[in-house]
Specification:
The complex is a heterodimer of chains A (304) and B (253). Chain A has 304 residues and is mainly α. Chain A has helices at 2-26, 32-39, 46-56, 62-74, 88-123, 128-142, 145-159, 171-199, 203-210, 215-252, 258-266, 271-299. Chain A has two domains: 2-74; 90-299, MetI-like (MetI-like fold, Orthogonal Bundle), CATH 1.10.3720. In chain A, α5 (88-123) packs antiparallel against α10 (215-252) and α7 packs across α10. The longest helix of chain A is centred in the last third of the chain and has 38 residues, at 215-252. Chain A is flat. Chain B has helices at residues 2-19, 52-88, 90-105, 108-119, 123-150, 153-160, 165-202, 213-220, 229-248. In chain B, α3 crosses α5 (123-150). Classes of the chains: A mainly alpha (304), B mainly alpha (253). Chain A binds chain B through residues 13, 21, 24-25, 28-29, 134, 138, 141-144, 146-147, 150-151, 153-154, 157-158, 165-166, 190, 194, 236-237, 240-241, 243-245, 247-248, 251-252, 259, 262-263, 266-267, 274, 277-278, 281-282, 285, 289, and chain B through 102, 105-110, 113-114, 116-119, 190, 194-195, 197-198, 201-205, 217-218, 221-222, 224-225, 228, 231-232, 235, 238-240, 242-243, 246, 253. Chain B: Its main location: membrane. Chain B: This is ABC transporter permease. Chain B: It is found in: Cell membrane.
Chain lengths: 304, 253
């Protein structure tokens, strides 16, 4: 029941979002036809403009264009790029894996690191792990990931000469994942620790201690599940942040991902690409939301 | 005391750039390129001989514009919507809250990215987009605050005395919520600085000739081998600004 309701809500939200962005993008001040004529050195006559408009369907009313686009989008025809003339879907299919790998492995790495770090921080409040994770969360809030990436490139690339900066090698893939994970580790770790500290004040936790469990054992057996639950809830908001930081990482490390394509398309007001990007981001958020929701249900049987 | 001092220093640093720079930030002086730190160029010059300190100051002014518009929009609209939801109650309350929750799920940077994609990136458009994106969380926060105040006995007493609704909001509700709202907005301001720098770094429709901290980092990243100082200073400006903002409007975790 809950699933059907959530599914219907997301579909309605998705359609509303697509219409809003379609309208907004169509109302953009710059005219793609003018830009294309300049870019391709076409004669700026009435016929060329009219032909281009008819070809791209720009001469029809907005609602009709939207419905046409929606029907095409659902069947996998995401239109042609105004800039390159290539199908948008093919371009996205080639580039999406890069962004997905960056984002997903960053998130997974962050979860994997945040659990032990948060556990150590909770096991010894005021200890090294606790103070370290607090400092880390202050640090990542103030220092943007792309600048940290530049500094890292300078230190390990130029000073130590371990890697070649801006080369398209494995380091250009590993570094961005680490940088994306760093921010999420700090967030997850604090969430995890805070929830553990709350559980440790509960009566049942004292009972567990009275039964003879050590503090660490009690934390792991009786507080970990609830703390992990809190951590997974934080994944939902972090998923958006992660996809945003893949954008700067793709530019910095010159990776052929989605955001790089977006930046190239924005200058020429490539409507089909912009619209597809908005939809892909919305879908990513929806999927992450659903995945987290599923995982939460597995963790907490009371929700099911 | 320290907080007031830090905030004043930051404000002077950011606003100074709008009024005065030691050199014209866009003046090209090919003879003085990569001059290093000298008396007339305290932070050195870039590959075109433009003064780095002037460019950072000018970028600070642009960042300040973003900060002010984000703060203004988020603060006014968030307080208005959140307070309205709490005061109105009933189905209007739940509709307002549902809308805010829906917008919260879309990340700030993505909204700004889309807005910059559509309207081009200027301090004003970025501030507008980031501010609009901030309305959701601010409204939810204002709503929670107002609910808590409304449930207190003195509101009941005021209502029993026959205080009209407008006066109730102005005299009894807002004075209790506004200070907390203000520090909450300040707390989110650091995020806006980083988001604006990220947008400028990506280079979305930004005017590349205008000095922004983010676009400077993008432009100077190629000098990482020979002149790393060029990409260190703008980064310090970003990190310093955000750190001061976060420390002043500290959120007790």
């Amino acid at each position: 029941m809950g699933f059907v309701r959530a599914g219907v809500f997301s579909m309605v939200g998705l359609v509303a979002l697509s219409f809003a962005s379609f309208t907004l993008i169509a109302l953009m001040p710059a005219d793609p036809v003018e830009i294309a004529i300049r870019a391709w050195n076409l004669p700026a006559t009435e016929e060329t403009v009219a032909a281009l408009r008819a070809d791209w369907g720009l001469d029809r009313p907005l609602v009709q264009r939207y419905l046409h686009w929606l029907a095409d989008f659902v069947t996998g025809d995401w239109g042609r790029s105004f800039r390159t003339g290539e199908p948008v879907f093919a371009e996205f299919r080639a580039r999406l894996p890069v962004s997905l790998v960056l984002g997903l492995s960053g998130l997974l790495l962050a979860i994997a690191l945040a659990v032990p770090l948060g556990f150590l921080a909770a096991a010894r409040p005021g200890g090294f792990a606790d103070r370290g994770s607090r400092a880390l969360s202050v640090f990542v809030q103030a220092v943007p990931g792309f600048w940290l990436g530049l500094i890292l490139l300078w230190v390990i690339g130029v000073q130590f000469r371990w890697i070649r900066p801006f080369a398209n090698d494995a380091a250009a893939f590993v570094l961005p994942i680490l940088l994306i994970a760093l921010h999420s580790v700090a967030v997850f770790c604090r969430v995890y620790r805070r929830d553990m500290a709350e559980t440790a004040r509960r009566p049942y936790f004292r009972t567990a201690l009275a039964k003879g469990l050590s503090h660490r054992q009690a934390l792991w057996r009786h507080a970990h599940r609830s703390a992990f639950y809190a951590l997974l809830s934080a994944v939902r908001s972090e998923a958006g942040w992660v996809i945003g930081s893949t954008a700067t990482m793709e530019i910095l490390f010159n990776l052929p991902g989605l955001s790089q394509f977006l930046v190239q398309s924005i200058a020429v007001r490539d409507q089909m690409v912009l619209q597809a990007y908005v939809m892909v981001i919305a879908l990513w958020l929806l999927v992450m939301n659903a995945l987290v929701h599923l995982a939460l249900r597995l963790l907490d049987p009371r929700l099911a | 005391m320290v907080r007031t001092f830090a905030l004043t220093a930051l404000a002077v640093f950011l606003l100074l750039g709008g009024l005065w720079q030691p050199h014209d930030p866009d003046a090209v002086d090919i003879l003085a390129r990569h001059s290093g730190m000298t008396a007339s160029h305290p932070l050195g010059t870039d590959h075109l001989g433009r003064d780095l300190l002037s460019r950072i100051l000018a970028g600070g002014w642009r960042t300040a514009c973003v900060l002010l518009s984000v703060g203004f929009i988020g603060f006014t609209a968030g307080t208005l919507l959140g307070t309205a939801a709490a005061v109105l109650g009933g189905w209007r309350e739940s509709v307002l809250l549902r809308c805010c929750e829906f917008f919260i799920t879309v990340p700030t940077l993505i909204i700004a990215l889309t807005a910059a994609a559509i309207f081009g990136l200027t301090p004003l458009s970025a501030g507008l987009a980031l501010g609009l994106a901030g309305i959701g969380p601010h409204a939810l926060f204002a709503h929670a605050l107002s609910r808590r105040v409304i449930s207190q006995p003195f509101i009941l007493a005021a209502r029993a005395l026959g205080v009209p609704p407008g006066r109730m909001i102005a005299r009894h509700l807002l004075p209790n919520t506004l200070p907390l709202m203000f520090s909450h907005v300040g707390n989110q301001a650091g995020l806006a600085v980083v988001a604006y720098a990220s947008l400028a770094f990506i280079g979305l429709g930004a005017d590349p000739s205008k000095p922004d901290w983010g676009s400077m980092l993008f432009e100077y990243r190629v000098f990482i081998f020979d002149h790393p100082a060029l990409m260190i200073w703008p980064g310090i400006a970003i990190a310093g600004t955000v750190a001061v903002l976060n420390a002043v409007f500290d959120d007790p975790d």
